[in-house]
Amino acid sequence: MQVEALVSLGAYFVLMLGIGLYAYKKSTDDVSGYMLGGRKLHPAVGALSAGASDMSGWMLMGLPGAVYVSGLGAAWIAVGLVIGAYFNYLLVAPRLRVYTEIADDAITIPDYFEKRFSDDTRILRILSSVVIVIFFTLYTSSGVVAGGKLFEASFGLDYRLGLFLTAGVVIAYTLFGGFLAVSLTDFVQGVIMFVALIMVPIVAFTQLGGLGEIAQTTRAVADTPNYLSMIPDPLTSMSIIGIISAMSWGLGYFGQPHIIVRFMAIRTLKEVATARLIGMTWMIVTVIGAVLTGIFGLAFVTQNGSMIEQSGLEFTDSETIFILMSQILFHPLVGGFLLAAILAAIMSTISSQLLVSSSSLTEDFYKTFLRRGASQKELVLIGRLSVLVVSLVAIFLAFDRSSSILDLVSNAWAGFGAAFGPLILFSLYRRDMSRSAAIAGMVTGAVVVLFWLYAPLSINGGSLSAFIYEMIPGFLASTLAIVITDAITKAPRGKVKDQYDAMEAHIEEHG
User: Fold this and answer.
1) How do residues 149-176 score in pLDDT, each as one tens digit?
2) How far, in Å, CA of 58 to CA of 63, rounded?
3) Phi, psi of 42 (to 5 degrees)
4) Which end of the chain, N or C, is less surrounded by CB atoms within 10 Å?
């Protein structure tokens, strides 16, 4: 079985490398092509690329595992993410696509901030670049760790070998193919995830005897009597706070560089609406599939204990329920394809984070401070070297199997959401926003998130973050800092206002 599954994974690796080679020949002659694909991204590719790079292994492992343990109440985070993703497409995507091109073709988020606020001091560029590189290096490392553990759990391979297999393929197609390779591979990976999250719950459903049997089984073994309900009973104030915390994950979308950079690359403004329809359809179907995998997974494990024992597979971690079901319910070749879906989720996020980190190091450090006159070929070379450097640091951080870097994923999401989210929204909708307000919002959001995580304070005996997700205080504090600072400082004049007016006129004419 392992041999057949490895054949499926091998074919998947070859496909990813082939796409990287194709992209290498198509769009890596200049830095705009390498970092943004020349702003020629098809809306379907952009939508699935954004979705795949967003969801990572959380979609196939984290969410099914949480629902397996806690029931439908754990699905509130998915509800928040769906709502957040929709408003990200609606509010951010159109304006960011137009504004970044009008603002002297800004190709990174720090580059956009600097040009949007006419920041001659370079403070905005430096601060945002540091946040991106640090958080994404850790974020990338968490993905490499997940890849190593996937190979170890599924095939008995050495954890460190799994690290290098996962990182090696991602590095190869990202380093050579750039943004186009990342987006095209994300598209393929998004399709694989979509198919996998339809196949597994449907096949499980047919094996379990229908909804009545599934409900009866889960109610009999679940730790909570409200396992199949999204509304806790009784509805206490703490449960309301828990639901708000879960749904607040959706606020993070507005500030995630690896997601919103896809909006900047879509071919035209009109195609943003097409991307939104495709992206939201993909997301809703896959989220429902992931939730059903968790619910059906509990019934499957309960009904088929002897089958699981005979398979020789160990099931000790709820987050591996998708892996368990894919290996027992399907032929080994199909099981290998489903394992490739998990790997696809992991690799799509790693590649996106590598490219955004590389873009920041190249455009926001090297070109800005070291070699302003660097040629396009030189910048592409530096971009590739940056991919390699960030990857090596991430692998180094992941080398210790007991690493707790995975715990930083939710912290990084909150950090980006609070530091960049309000700033992105205000910059796109407030014509007279000042540079000082932008700096205040970014710094305040990041600091409040860090304070909420690490301050030696407690509420009802628990940490601040255990009481309410750090995204909420961070996002609110950043918003207040922007509003208050903007009220007492002067906005930039001249070119910046002309660019904003040009963006609004373009939206009105072509939106």
Assistant:
1) 777 777 777 888 888 888 887 777 776 6
2) 6
3) -65, 140
4) C
Q: 196, exposed or middle or buried, with CB in 10 Å at 0-12, 13-18, 19+?
A: buried
Domain-embedded: residue 428: no
In this prediction the pTM is: 0.84
As a whole number of Å, the end-to-end CA separation of the chain is 52
Report how far residue 68's alpha carbon sits from residue 269's, in angstroms, rounded to the nearest whole number. Answer: 41
Q: How far apart are CA 39 and CA 42, in angstroms?
A: 9
Tell me the CATH number at 16: 1.20.1730.10
Tell me if 470 is assigned to some domain: no
Contact of 297 with 321, CB cutoff 8 Å: yes
H helix count then E strand count, the chain: 22, 2
Q: How many residues does the chain have?
A: 511
Nearest alpha carbon to residue 258 among 467, 22, 52, 456: 52
Instruction: Look at residue 483 and tell me if it is in a domain.
Output: no
Say what angle helices 332-359 and 123-155 make with each other, to 10 degrees.
160
Q: How many domains does the chain have?
A: 1
Give a yes or no: residue 490 inside a domain: no
Provide the residue range defining the domain that includes 234: 2-400
In the 3-class helix/strand/coil scheme, how is 401-470 assigned residue by residue? CCCCHHHHHHHHHHHHHHHHHHHHHHHHHCCCCCHHHHHHHHHHHHHHHHHHHHCCCEECCEEHHHHCCC
Rounded to the nearest angstrom, the gap between the alpha carbon of residue 214 and the centroid of all alpha carbons in its chain is: 32
**Alpha helix stretches (DSSP H) within 255-331:** 257-265, 270-303, 305-311, 321-329
C-alpha Rg value of the chain to the nearest Å: 23
User: pLDDT-derived band of residue 233, with 50, 70 and 90 as boundaries?
Assistant: low
User: Which residue has tokens 């072509």?
Assistant: 510
Cα 251 to chain center, whole Å? Answer: 13
